[in-house]
Amino acid sequence: MSSSMSFARIVGTGSALPPKLVTNDDLAADMATRQIETSDQWIVERTGIRQRYIAERGFKTSTLATQAAQRALADAGVDASEVDLIILATSTPDFVFPSTACLVQANLGNKGAAAFDVQAVCSGFVYALTTAECFIRAGKARCALVIGAEVFSSILDWNDRGTCVLFGDGAGAVVLKGSDTPGILASELHADGSQTHILAAAGNVAYGQVTGDPFLRMDGQAVFKQAVTVLDRSARSVVAQAGLTLADLDWMIPHQANLRILTFLARKLDVPLEKVVITVDQHANTSAASVPLALDVARRDGRVQAGQLVLLQGVGGGFTWGSVLVRM
Ligand code: UT7
Questions:
Q1: Does ligand 1 come within 6 angstroms of the Cβ of 220?
Q2: Residue 122: active-site member
Q3: Could you give the number of structural domains in the chain?
Q4: Are 114 and 84 spatial neighbours (Cβ–Cβ below 8 Å)?
Q5: Using a 6 Å cutoff on CB, does residue 257 contact ligand 1?
Q6: Which domain, by its residues, includes 141?
Q7: CATH of the domain at 108
Q8: Do residues 131 and 270 both lie within one domain?
Q9: Is 24 one of the annotated active-site residues of the chain?
């Protein structure tokens, strides 16, 4: 690797959604058959979510991840054989093992790249992107595929109205390449393992059966408060690391969990809401997929343009959070 290639740059993006669109009204009608009450009005007022895409039973995370990866490679004009690192963030892997990253590698026809999964729930993509950047800057990789992909519907309790209305399925991917001009300007990752209880799917497969609770459980208000606090702090920190100010940002792409979180965050940071990419209304919360999915949508519809300064932020179970400041 040439010594001048000391930075990492995003050179392509892609995303994928399962075919089935489920509106709030669809969901309310389905839940009503089980005597569970919800409404489009409640969901929109509390979350801003209007619809989500839900995979059919048996549909695999690796399938969505492969589609997103293929679109990112095509966008970058990079052949799968050039990729020497695949990092995939998910909390809904196809299997206990092998990693979903290895399954995607096989689907892409790549041989020999290092491939592994990252588990940081809704912060997963930001964790994976930062990890890939470190590989590239250390000269250990030249061309990385970084993917966030989830079939989150598979770990939802469809009888728990406090959680099941909030999430959806999807995938997003970026191609990250060594570059002599900076793409990623600054990043930071954090976790607080004392907060595991506020958001968890505390089950596992062991001794031939499911042990513990296989469904996502959440203390919504605790997560809400933590999310706004850590995203605010982390945004200020990475922007300062890069010697820039919040006013320099062209776009913020925080984890798409809830429109109220995005609105609070923008207000705390004094960033106009017009500079926040919002896709949670369309996709709901797709966990590790939410940030790369929103980035790809915003690039393809012309919002995010080459040369712009974009802040990517993740937050979620663990408790985990992190930010990556990118020059596109
Ligand atoms: O990646 C991070 C993922 N986590 C998040 O993004 C969660 C962050 N938290 C939140 O977004 C919000 O806390 C929620 C949207 C989850 C909940 O909003 P809230 O304003 O904190 O509502 P709440 O939990 O205080 O519930 C208010 C009421 C309750 O009824 P009572 O006790 O006042 O009679 C709930 O039972 O709303 C009820 N409720 C619902 N009603 C209709 C809860 N879920 C629903 C529902 N439809 N789906």
A1: yes
A2: yes
A3: 2
A4: yes
A5: yes
A6: 7-181
A7: 3.40.47.10
A8: no
A9: no
Q: Let me know if residue 1 belongs to a domain.
A: no
Q: Which pLDDT band holds residue 268 (cuts at 50, 70, 90)?
A: very high
Query: Of 181, 202, 229, which residue is a domain's last?
Result: 181
Q: Is residue 216 part of a domain?
A: yes
- Verify that 137 and 241 share a domain, yes or no: no
Say how many Å lie between the CA of residue 230 and the centre of ligand 1.
20
Domain boundary among 159, 181, 203: 181
Q: Select from 261, 294, 260 the least CA-distant residue to 277.
A: 294
Residues 156 and 66 in one domain: yes
From the list 216, 214, 222, 215, the residue with the least C-alpha distance to 198 is 222
- The residue whose CA is least distant from atom 21 of ligand 1 is 221
Please give the pLDDT value at position 1: 46
Residues 2 and 17: their CA atoms lie apart, in Å, by 37
122, 164, 258, 283: the active-site residue: 122
pLDDT bracket for residue 5 (50, 70, 90): confident
Could you tell me if residue 2 is inside a domain? Answer: no
CB atoms within 10 A of CB 67: 20
Name 86's bridge partners: 115, 145
- Asked if residue 201 belongs to a domain, the reply is yes
**CB of 200 closer than 6 angstroms to any ligand 1 atom:** no
Cα(159) to ligand 1 centroid in Å equals 14
Distance 263 CA to ligand 1 centre (A): 17
Same domain, 216 and 302: yes
The residues pairing with 150 across neighbouring beta strands, listed in sequence order, are 170
185 Cβ below 6 A of ligand 1: no
pLDDT tens for each residue of 58-81: 999 999 999 999 999 999 999 999
Specify the 3-state DSSP secondary structure of 96.
coil
162 lines ligand 1 (CB under 6 A): yes
**Per-residue tokens: 178:** 């060594």
Residues 72, 153: one domain? yes
Q: What is the mean pLDDT of the segment spanning 95-123?
A: 98
Give the C-alpha separation, 100 to 94, whole Å: 6
pTM for the full model?
Answer: 0.97
